[in-house]
Amino acid sequence: MRLTETAGEKAPRIGVLASGPRGTLADIEGVTVGHCTLDEGAVQTGVTVIRPHPGDPFIAKVPAAASVINGFGKSIGLVQVEELGVLETPIALTNTFGVAAVAQAQIRAAIRANPQIGREWSTVNPLVFECNDGYLNDIQALAVSEQHYNDACDAASVDVASGSVGAGRGMSCFDLKGGIGNASRVIDVAGRSYTVGALVLANFGRLPMLTIDGAPLGRVLAGRAAKSVAAGSAAVATSANSAIQATASKPEQGSIIMIVATDAPLDARQLKRLSLRAAAGLARTGSVYGHGSGDIALAFSTAYTVPHESDFVALPPVLADARLDPLFRACADSVEQAIVDALWHATSVTGRDGHRRLSLRDTAPDLAQLLKQSS
């Protein structure tokens, strides 16, 4: 098991490809990420926004494409992305019942910047992805508002937090605390260096399925939880382990949103192929894309923009399909690493009706030793 320093702590390192300097989606030049976190009793949720470049994405659209690996989801905007192959708003992540409010916020923001939208010009395509954080968050409170989207946009920077932040605040992953995860990989293609980055909203999986860099860690932790309950350990531990044991045997009904960015010059067709490789990284962690899961990947490139109004679009030379394998590998590694990052940096959260999700590190304080033994 390879270990590396991440934010001052040792985290499992996936693969052998080099990371960018930050190890986040912001290693793609121009990309920024902002979070707005709601942490108030039963309300444990938030909004995360990804800006593809510093300018106006409606005026200067970026090429993009998505792959729906399993479609149990309530996202907005995917149909037009599939048809036109571009983004024209920032990408937003939130909880399932927050989608409408965030989409309206995106529309209002686009109209403020471009009053011609919906009149002299076409309408704007908001793009919002979601996962259901209803175990920890009182999702019926409809707590997410337009202001939370605006706050996340205002907070966007290259300093990207992971864990129980933004849209990831109330998310669960492998019956542990999930949330936002980041990673990046650098590859050489045709004599040039390119970066692929991933940001995930991880809210899927059952504990016995959890696999980290090939190690069946989930089975070990699930076995521990069962023994703790049987032995009647301390009240807090028993309560937490009972919750893990009770949910670990239920069907997979979680979701994950995987956002992949690259500075490599790809067209929308090639970006769709790249987005599909996110599923390889997801599968390595133990997911089987269950019936009730919403597993969606979107990939975009910052290598060029598509103007809103133009008779012709000047595209740079794009990579030949036969040169895409290094990007496919970097995508799979980045997504797997980002899921591990979400688990590693998540903090334990107590929310609705006293429901609690322990972080991976609170569940297994001896995690580093367990991983070494499994290598």
Q: What descriptors fit this protein?
A:
single chain; 375 residues; alpha+beta; L-amino peptidase D-ALA esterase/amidase; seven-stranded mixed sheet; globular; disordered N terminus; aminopeptidase; Peptidase_S58_DmpA; hydrolase
Structure description:
Keywords: Aminopeptidase, Hydrolase, Protease. This is Beta-peptidyl aminopeptidase BapA. One of its GO terms (molecular function) is aminopeptidase activity. The protein is α+β, with helices and mostly antiparallel strands and 375 residues long. It has one domain (3-374): L-amino peptidase D-ALA esterase/amidase. Helix content is 29%, strand content 26%. It is built from ten helices and 17 strands. Strands 5, 6, 11, 12, 13, 14 and 15 form a seven-stranded mixed β-sheet that branches. The chain has a four-stranded mixed β-sheet with strand order 3-4-7-8. Strands 1-2 form a two-stranded antiparallel sheet. Strand 1 (3-6) and strand 2 (9-12) form a beta hairpin. Helix 7 (278-284) crosses helix 8. It starts with a strand and ends with a helix. Mean pLDDT is 92; it is low at 1-8.
